[in-house]
């Protein structure tokens, strides 16, 4: 290789074509290596001859093609930084918590199953090792003493080929056996065996059997390997296995692909040669429910499996309600959901309304959860609701949930008609705008008048909406902004045991005519009122065609039924034909569990739990919210006293002290701070006892005067004073109860 000098005096190398000095075979090998290397590059593509894309012409990019911008690491969000790191090369299943939960469940189940089978495995190991010892001894003897020559001699003897041939074979056997015993491998093996045996004996002699047993593990391991090989040879079909399969075990372990295949074979949907093909990996949610997707063989479809769903569940050792089968992307794709426990067997979840400070009915009603643990929220603003079913199965408790949502919304005006006449809705009376209790004729007449008032209110609201600009009423429905701006609060009308009111109307002289008119009015309210903010929530025991006519039931889009005695009763609540479609409340037999039928379909649900005590707290909270917002009206507001004079001063005293109890002298001191000229302070020369007696008597007189004619009283009780001593005084809760707020 020659060199030249640059202008700076440095030598510049010249390239020499070394390929001219290589033989053809070397050049061919180098060409193959270069093509292989090119195929690993970004531009290496499927040109099977060269492995490289050849660009004959490079076009220049247009001037406005844009530029690349280098982003600082701080400007990249978390997902972008992850994409630049290891996340793209890590399989998603390694990052899926649901997949890992399923893996752990399978591993733990397998460990527990094999642990219970350990005595069987121990006996199987001993038996296999014994076979290995016999086979090993046989093969070693056969090799060291060349027994195959003896077999040839027996064949020659039976063929009567002559004694000289037998003698030659025996001579060859002795020669071959002697040569084998002198082979280095044989010598090393025998030396190793004797050394190992001597070491084990010495260890046992020195340390006892405790350390001898671990030292024998390699020996028994070798025997087991020999025995396993022999048993595998005897069973070429692969039927021999040391560990038993967990899929065929009679236990409620995790559902796996193998277990599904065995179940499908058991119900004759698959043959012995067919098996399912898993799609992705099984996942398990936080509740322990498992979801698996698999593909059936070509001649089996999901519809066929659904028709045998009960048999399939039985083959898996599960009840039908613990599984759910849905079709995947193709008819052969199946998505199987398996519940960890029997659905709805546990306690009902506590309603989020119990701890909610307030709620907006526009956000829907958190109502229940389905068997998969998914939450169900009802939007009642555009569809009223009917509750039904047998007594004692949670119908009123379920109806209490939407009532609680309305109670916690200070902009929702509650209307109550309780024809049962019990104490189920006593707490709601403290916030309801209208209250009707009992099924006497006067109460029913009041109910009919209320229906007429609601129709008038509905017409008035629609007239207001029509007069609004179209920008404010895009779909002629009430919105939160419209409700606030135009004084049209949401109206929730709760009607319990509505069939009692219908029965009273039917018993009258012109009952049929009056009954038909009432039903028509209620149907109008339900059909049209939902667009202007009217929600009707009604309940009936067994709404037959006579007690609750179909003209009324058919316009209610959401229906919920607890346990019923038969499918006919269930269909009266949920709608005709629901039982035939597999949705029936007949025989549910579980308190708090029912069937919800709505526009999108029907499903079994467990209603959120709100106890009567919790409902009382919710209603008290709703009353306080309405007083604060100025929306406590009608019946509930009639119990409020005008807070003025001594009552207002006492409430201000409690608020200033920030305590729940105050003695009479404590209140006197606080009233003196409010108005020093009111003579609540201690006079000069007045003893503590005299002052306490004076202000106590004055408080009693002024409180009695303030409550005169209200039918209420506020008495002094034993309290803890601000000084920490016991004395006579008042509690904040008693004052609040007297004031009604």
Automatic annotation (TrEMBL):
<keyword id="KW-0547">Nucleotide-binding</keyword>
<keyword id="KW-0067">ATP-binding</keyword>
<feature type="domain" description="FtsK">
    <location>
        <begin position="364"/>
        <end position="571"/>
    </location>
</feature>
<feature type="binding site">
    <location>
        <begin position="389"/>
        <end position="396"/>
    </location>
    <ligand>
        <name>ATP</name>
    </ligand>
</feature>
<dbReference type="Pfam" id="PF01580">
    <property type="entry name" value="FtsK_SpoIIIE"/>
</dbReference>
<dbReference type="InterPro" id="IPR027417">
    <property type="entry name" value="P-loop_NTPase"/>
</dbReference>
<dbReference type="InterPro" id="IPR002543">
    <property type="entry name" value="FtsK_dom"/>
</dbReference>
<protein>
    <recommendedName>
        <fullName>FtsK domain-containing protein</fullName>
    </recommendedName>
</protein>
<dbReference type="InterPro" id="IPR050206">
    <property type="entry name" value="FtsK/SpoIIIE/SftA"/>
</dbReference>
